[in-house]
Structure formats: structure tokens, C-alpha cells
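WARN retry 2 of 3 for item q-0093 after timeout on previous attempt; input resubmitted unchanged.
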Amino acid sequence: LRLWSGAHFPIPGSIFCSSEECWTEARKRVPKSLRRDFDTFTILVHWRLWKERNARIFQQEAATVERVVDLIIEDLRSWKAAGCIVAI
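OK item q-0093 returned
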């Protein structure tokens, strides 16, 4: 997603305790004019991961990592087309 979006935000790793901490630390590095887009981007990624988690648990269906990334990109493009994201 970093390559696709052209954004250079930090990747969660062992230095972060939670995705919330990663989000807030990464957000500090984003110019104020792009923070709304960054927040939308982050929320959409988490939402798609949550949907994948539910599909795995409740429908016993698992998508590949590549498919989940493709779905995230589709979501982002839809939100951009709707005017909810400007820069991505």
C-alpha cells in the first residue's frame, strides 16, 4: 500500500504497542493538509482487515494477502471517486 499510494508512512513493527499508537505516530509526520486523507486511508485499511477477519471466522473463507490489498485499493479508489479522499 505504501508503494501504491506513494506515501512514506512508518510500518507497524516491534516498536509500536498497538495499531492506534502506530496511527498516531505516523499521523504526526503527515502534513496537516493531508491528515484527513491519511485518517481515511488508515480507517479503510483497518475496516477491510476487520472484514477479512470476520470472513475467516464466520464463513471459514480466507482471501490471499494480494486479494485483500486489491480490495483496499478498490475501496480507496471508490472513496476518492466519491470525493472523500483528495490526495491518494
